[in-house]
Amino acid sequence: MSTSPIARHGRDYLAIPGPSVMPDAVLRAMHRAAPNIYAGELVEIAASLVPDLKKVARTDGHVAMYIGNGHAAWEAALANTIAPGDTVLVPATGRFGHGWADMAEGLGAEVEIMDFGKRAPMDIDRIAETLRADTAHRIKAVLAVHVDTSTSVRNDIAAVRAVLDATDHPALLMADCIASLGCDRFEMDAWGVDVMVAGCQKGLMVPPGMAFVFFNDKAAAVRAQMPRVSRYWDWTPRANPEEFFMYWNGTAPTHHLYGLRTALDMLHAEGIEQVWARHTVLARSIWAACEAWGQGGPLELNVRDAANRSTAVTSLRIGAPHGTALRDWVEQNLGLTLGIGLGMAPPSDPDWHGFFRLGHMGHVNGHMIMGLLGGIQAGLGALDIPHGPGALDAAAGVISAG
User: Where are the beta strands (DSSP E) in 157-312?
Assistant: First the structure.
């Protein structure tokens, strides 16, 4: 006889901000024997990915594909544009802004961090002041995270381009869209982004393992002036391969390509504008539920202003030890996994147990979100964590209104 909780059996729900829920169609596409990596179907599939990836990024520029995670994309973007001793400006709104800054420092760059805390977006006026003061143009790039996965802060990337133009500053604008691509609205060309990095495991709905660097002609010109770029990280042959192996500087990530081809077909069949709209509605339903719970208890949305929140991930504060207790209860009793409060406090600090995150990116719909919220409601009740009433009704009202 089973001794596990009675409501635990069935399909688990991974509601963390990446890896995201993988569509069955993607899993079926990947479930096959190893293909020929020299000719045939796989070669054709790889070539077909390039224009469809650029459609998601909203760019007519270039894309280089790597076998790696988001950190690999960070390093690739920097390796092609920033030489040791160059200065980069990093306006940080969470752990991942600091992470990209640390990557740049490890490659020998001089890093200037503007820390805007964990609850607010970048202060565009302060960035403008810094750029205006840089009359010698020491700053070679601004590394801006569109959505910081730890805090769920969404930044105004177009506004950063506006101040670069207003101050007549030549620095490259680099955007981290690892959490946001295919979820939050992003317009690479219209917003004037020179380099954008992304991964396959969030809005693109594929298991972790592929990273992407999109870049325009301005960034390509910077690459051409670099004194040295390693053979592996060099984006030039990857974006313009003369032979198939050059896409990855070696063996292709074979099964990821089948999965990505199917995922892109799904995104384009739905339409990217509709994808953004779906994420917006589902995110608003989560926020409505959280606001209702917060009326009678400690739960609080990390980002106060909805205009500054991502529609892909929501970071929450509930006070220690409730965050960890809630995550443990819903996973053990319901098969529902919530995200840890990454970067909100050191793991050794008792306050670390007062945060959690919800991933609502990629292959999610209304009934999945209502199930997620119902699971949290059950956990709050089981643990006697104070909370206000009406959360599920509030969420349902947002979804029904569309």
Answer: 172-176, 195-199, 210-215, 300-301
